[in-house]
């Protein structure tokens, strides 16, 4: 499908307003392939695609410019809070709320709607409504189609310009010959990458549509956040390693001190034994006798006392 993406703008600059508003205008041309017409736009790295195939209207959210399941965002708790045309809730959406399992506050991923008129396929980033005559008439006469969705904690309102929708309907029904046919050739959206600085191989590059200033800013912020996290981790690891090294040095010093103390104590005990034995041997040598237990102290013997070679055998 041919995709020519323009960057939509925030309708409200209030940073405290949790509801993000994305505007996708008529400058985002309809792409017609077969019996399906699609208008697409992007904001902050996400791409929003409104499709009409004469039987259904569909909103799909993707991570890339291509309107396909392969690039679809996956959600665990996608909710659709409202679908409006020119600020008024679609009666068909109201019917879906009234005929949903469990509650009627908003359409919730995982809950079924009677006859499958409305369906949220969160794993495919998609919301689908089966059209009726009244809804088709409202689309044909409307100026703005709004989807109020809640993919995470914050709500997002995606507004599509449908002021030229009647021409698209005529084209798909074969009643309008003046609508220019769009080539089936896919025009790739140029993608850029925000890369981390050298030395941070663990951090992956973040891809974004080159012409999407908001997506580029988001990619830069993502890299900055990952860098801060990685630097904090490295600092923690370095501190841990330093502490471990210090602890190892202290343990080695304590061990060496203990060994030195043991050696000193052993030497002191040996000296004490030597002194006692010398005293005994001196008495024997003074009487002219020599015993084998005094052989190791022979160097202290007085003149006249000789070593006894036979003591070595004992």
The coarse overall form would be rod-shaped
How is the biggest beta sheet arranged? 6 strands, mixed
The N- and C-terminal alpha carbons lie at a distance of 105 Å
Specify Rg, calculated over alpha carbons.
43 Å
- Count of individual helical segments: 4
What share of the residues does DSSP label as strand, in percent?
Answer: 15-25%
Mean pLDDT: 87
Assign the structural class, choosing from mainly alpha, mainly beta, alpha/beta, alpha+beta, or little secondary structure.
alpha+beta
Tell me the series of helices and strands, N- to C-terminal.
Answer: EEEEEEEHEEEHEEHEEH
Helix content: 25-40%
Low-confidence segments: 1-17, 177-187
The strand count comes to 14
Brief write-up:
With 314 residues, this protein is an alpha+beta fold. It has helices at residues 91-98, 133-141, 165-173, 213-286, and strands at 20-24, 31-33, 36-43, 46-52, 56-62, 79-85, 88-89, 107-108, 118-121, 126-130, 144-150, 156-161, 191-194, 206-209.
Question: How would you describe this protein?
Answer:
- The N terminus is likely disordered.
- The strands form three sheets. Strands 1, 6, 7, 8, 11 and 12 form a six-stranded mixed sheet that branches. Strands 2-3-4-5-10-9 form a six-stranded antiparallel sheet.
- Among the domains are: 170 residues, no CATH class; 30 residues, no CATH class.
- 24% of the residues are buried.
- The protein is α+β, with helices and mostly antiparallel strands.
- The protein is built from four helices and 14 strands.
- The longest helix has 74 residues.
- Helices cover 32% and strands 23% of the residues.
């Amino acid at each position: 499908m041919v995709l020519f993406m323009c960057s939509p703008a925030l309708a409200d600059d209030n940073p405290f307003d949790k509801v993000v508003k994305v505007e996708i205008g008529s400058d985002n041309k309809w792409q017609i392939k077969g019996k399906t017409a699609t208008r697409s736009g992007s904001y902050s790295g996400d791409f929003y695609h409104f499709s009409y195939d004469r039987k259904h209207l569909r909103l799909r959210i993707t991570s890339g410019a291509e309107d396909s399941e392969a690039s679809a965002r996956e959600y665990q708790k996608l909710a659709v809070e409202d679908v409006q045309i020119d600020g008024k809730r679609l009666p068909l959406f109201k019917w879906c709320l009234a005929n949903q399992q469990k509650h009627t506050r908003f359409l919730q991923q995982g809950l079924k709607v009677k006859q499958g008129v409305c369906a949220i396929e969160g794993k495919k980033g998609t919301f689908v409504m089966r059209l009726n005559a009244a809804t088709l008439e409202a689309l044909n006469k409307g100026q703005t189609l709004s989807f109020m969705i809640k993919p995470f904690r914050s709500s997002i309102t995606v507004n599509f310009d449908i002021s030229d929708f009647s021409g698209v309907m005529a084209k798909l029904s074969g009643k309008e010959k003046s609508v220019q046919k769009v080539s089936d050739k896919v025009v790739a959206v140029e993608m850029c990458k925000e890369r981390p600085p050298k030395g941070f191989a663990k951090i992956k590059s973040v891809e974004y549509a080159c012409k999407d200033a908001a997506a580029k800013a988001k990619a830069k912020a993502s890299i900055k956040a990952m860098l801060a996290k990685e630097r904090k981790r490295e600092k923690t690891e370095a501190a841990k390693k330093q502490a471990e090294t210090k602890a190892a040095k202290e343990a080695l010093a304590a061990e060496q001190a203990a060994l030195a103390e043991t050696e000193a104590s052993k030497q002191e005990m040996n000296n004490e034994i030597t002194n006692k034995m010398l005293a005994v041997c001196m008495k024997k040598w003074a009487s002219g006798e020599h015993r084998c237990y005094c052989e190791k102290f022979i160097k202290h013997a007085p003149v006249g006392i000789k070593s006894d070679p036979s003591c070595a055998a004992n």
